[in-house]
C-alpha cells in the first residue's frame, strides 16, 4: 500500500466509496471532492497497486504561524479495513498538520468506536458533542481535538 496525493481521476472512485460507506448520511459527490481540491486542501489517496482503497483530507486554516487544521474525511474501502490503511492516512495528515504547528480538529460519529479509538491513540481528546450532526440519519458526533505537535528539527530525536 502506498500514499500519494489524490488526483482528479480518483474522484469518481471516492464518490463510489462515499455512497457505499456513508449511505445513511450525506455522501460526498465528485463535485464535492473537486471543490475540496480546488480550495487547495491536502488530500491523500491510499493505493493497493492501482486500486484506490482509501482517501483522507485535511484543511489548513489561518496564516502561517497561526494555523488550525480540520480532518474533513478519512475513508477506507470495506475490504481493506482493519489493515492499518486508516491509521496510515491519519498519520500522514497529522504529519502535515505538525509541519504547520497546527492544532487538529475533527468530528466523528459517537457510534464509531473503531475511529474514536484510533483518534484517541493519536492524541485526540473529546471536546464536545454535536447532536444530530450527521444528516439525514441524525447521528450525533463527538468533536475532538489534538494539540499541535512541533515538527522535529533535522537530527533531533523524537520520542
Walk me through what this model shows.
Helix 1 crosses helix 2. The protein is 28% helix and 34% strand. Residues 152-159 have low confidence and may be disordered. The protein is globular. It has a single domain (2-146), classed as 3-Layer(aba) Sandwich (Aminopeptidase). It contains four helices and seven strands; from the N terminus they run E-H-H-E-E-E-H-E-H-E-E. With 159 residues, the protein is α+β, with helices and mostly antiparallel strands. The protein has a seven-stranded mixed β-sheet with strand order 1-2-3-4-5-7-6, sandwiched between helices. A hairpin with a 2-residue loop joins strand 3 (51-63) and strand 4. It starts with a strand and ends in a 13-residue tail after the last strand.
* Highest-level CATH class: Alpha Beta
CATH homology-level superfamily: Gcn5-related N-acetyltransferase (GNAT)
Strand content: 25-35%
Q: What fraction, in percent, of the residue positions are helical?
A: 25-40%
Number of helices: 4
CATH topology, what is it called?
Aminopeptidase
Mean of pLDDT: 92
Outline the biggest β-sheet: 7 strands, mixed
Number of strands: 7
Please, how many domains?
1
How large is the radius of gyration? 16 Å
Structural class: alpha+beta
Low-confidence stretches: 152-159
Strand order in space, largest sheet: 1-2-3-4-5-7-6
| Overall CATH architecture | 3-Layer(aba) Sandwich
Key terms:
7 strands, 159 residues, transferase, Aminopeptidase, Ribosomal-protein-alanine N-acetyltransferase, Bact_Acetyltransf, disordered C terminus, alpha+beta, acyltransferase, 4 helices
Amino acid at each position: 500500500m502506498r500514499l500519494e496525493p489524490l488526483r482528479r481521476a480518483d474522484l469518481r472512485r471516492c464518490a463510489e466509496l462515499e455512497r457505499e460507506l456513508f449511505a445513511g448520511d450525506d455522501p460526498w459527490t465528485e463535485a464535492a471532492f473537486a471543490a475540496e481540491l480546488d480550495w487547495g486542501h491536502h488530500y491523500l489517496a491510499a493505493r493497493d497497486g492501482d486500486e484506490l482503497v482509501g482517501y483522507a483530507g485535511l484543511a489548513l486554516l489561518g496564516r502561517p504561524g497561526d494555523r488550525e487544521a480540520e480532518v474533513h474525511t478519512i475513508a477506507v474501502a470495506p475490504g481493506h479495513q482493519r489493515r492499518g490503511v486508516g491509521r496510515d492516512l491519519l498519520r500522514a495528515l497529522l504529519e502535515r498538520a505538525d509541519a504547520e504547528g497546527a492544532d487538529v480538529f475533527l468530528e466523528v460519529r459517537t457510534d464509531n468506536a473503531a475511529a474514536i479509538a484510533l483518534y484517541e491513540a493519536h492524541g485526540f481528546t473529546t471536546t464536545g458533542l454535536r447532536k444530530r450532526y450527521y444528516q439525514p440519519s441524525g447521528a450525533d458526533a463527538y468533536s475532538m481535538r489534538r494539540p499541535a505537535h512541533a515538527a522535529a528539527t533535522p537530527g533531533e530525536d523524537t520520542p
